[in-house]
Amino acid sequence: MKRILAIYICFGVCSSFLFNNGPLEVYVTCGDGSKKLSPEPSLNSGSGSGTRINVDRSKRYQTMDGFGAALTNSAAYVIYHSPRRHEIMRSLFGWNGIGISYVRLTMGGSDFQAVNAYTYDDLPDNNQNDFGMNRFSIDKDKAFVIPILKEALTLNPKLKVMATPWSAPAWMKNNKNLFGGDFNSGSQYQEAYASYFVKFIQAYASEGIKIEAITVQNEPLHKSDSYPTMGMSWQLERDFIKYHLGPKFRSNGINTKILIFDHNWDLKDYPEHIMSDSSAAQYIDGSAWHCYGGRHDTPESFHNKFPSKNIYFTECSGGDWDTNYYDGIVWNFRILMIGQPRSWAKSVLLFNLALDDNHGPRQGVSGCKDCRGVLTVHGDGSFTKNFEYMYIGHMSKVVQPGAVRVDSSWLGWDSLQSVAFENPDRSVAAVVLNPTASDQQIHVDIDGTSYPYNLKAHCVASFLKRH
Fold first, then answer.
1. CATH 3.20.20.80 residue spans of the chain
2. 10 Å Cβ neighbour count for 90?
3. pLDDT digits 0-9 by tens, 390-447
4. Does domain 65-398 have CATH number 3.40.50.2300?
5. How far apart are CA 200 and CA 107, in angstroms?
6. Contacts by residues 247-253 (CB-CB < 8 Å, ≥ 24 positions apart)
7. Residues 92-142 pLDDT 10s
8. CA separation for the pair 229, 367 (Å, rounded)
């Protein structure tokens, strides 16, 4: 009996010891291009001098939904029509690729269109109306958008899908046009638009695609006559949710999350006004944010005001303006991949999953002319993994959906920065950025075990300690 008890005690202690001292997997990307999401030899525990990156899983923050990018019409088109489509999809969504865990779907037309912009209830005459949604159809999405989503879900069944409209149907707007204009505030239009969202979610569900969340309007304070956009004041978005969308979701048993805002950090008054109305807030899961203006830590102060509501980072585009890999790594990790989770974001999403050599296609629209996709799909069938592929991969390869952000060292704006997570399987992921011009000897400390590593200048490393 004593021998059995001794073996039992040893098993508990020894298994804990073996877990605590197990090797640390490493992936590295460097600003000189020498390493691009490159796997390194696993690290063993050790001692010595160096800067401590302490991971404390006892201090817990938000649960993560995932990392990824937007499936625009253009992105779906170039992937679907590539002769290397399945290889591209495995690179994006497969576990031997970067395992993207969240995509943002454009509901109809946006600034990246391979076909003319459309919605799901277009009329031959925009002076007519269809309050009963009798002409509603997602058939145009079935050409290549839905097939790409279905393939992505086959590769990663845990993939989450968020959906966002750039515009309501033109007949619902004051200018009767998909481009520019404002949403018609009349009660009939609001009720019809709430039904539009319900029908969209139900139609996608019938295709086997669950819509995890919707945002009410992409960039509601931006209007353009060059591509689908729509103005929507905070008062109108608040009332639409409070009196129409929220009750409509509830009465139809829709549990898709409702997110507000979906615009830039510097426009924070907009979501604050909406969230301060308790009758609207009861239906709202959280707020969505873009990178094109303001301070990147604004969502943290927003979280402090509304701690029960979630934060999502939903758009930031790469582009040809970002040609310096050194600067790109530092900015994207300091501001986005590390900065947004540290500011309470549950997701970090870039813009187009893929574009062609000409930053498109852009059929009938004229938005960003030098935006870059996560991948560039070339006319000869080949494809290039851009900087953004590495940025997402450093997170999605080691952070599982459902991971909880835990405490980790942040040593200053111009010094080493990190973010860390405990995955559902109890493995631990840590991502560390060295923004300095000199190599840094670091020790990643997890569960009382220290792992020494020399992190080169302008490099980022992702560490994974398996359970």
1. 65-398
2. 15
3. 999 999 999 999 999 999 998 988 999 999 999 999 999 999 999 999 999 999 999 9
4. no
5. 9
6. 247/194, 247/283, 248/191, 248/194, 248/195, 248/197, 248/198, 249/194, 249/197, 249/198, 249/283, 250/283, 252/198, 252/202
7. 999 999 999 999 999 999 999 999 999 999 999 999 999 999 999 999 999
8. 11
Q: CA 375 to CA 389: how far, in whole Å?
A: 7
- Position 288: which residue type? A
Contacts from 135-139 at CB under 8 Å and sequence distance 24+?
Answer: 136/196, 136/199, 136/203, 138/200, 138/203, 138/204, 138/207
Tell me the pairing of strands 354-356 and 318-319. Answer: unpaired
* Length of the chain in terms of residues written: 467
Whether CATH 2.60.40.1180 fits 24-61+406-465: yes
Query: 70 near 349, Cβ under 8 Å?
Result: yes
* Whole-structure pTM value: 0.94
- Measured CA to CA, the distance from residue 30 to residue 325 in angstroms comes to 8
CA dist 183 and 114 (Å) reads 25
Six-digit token string for 115 = 């076909």
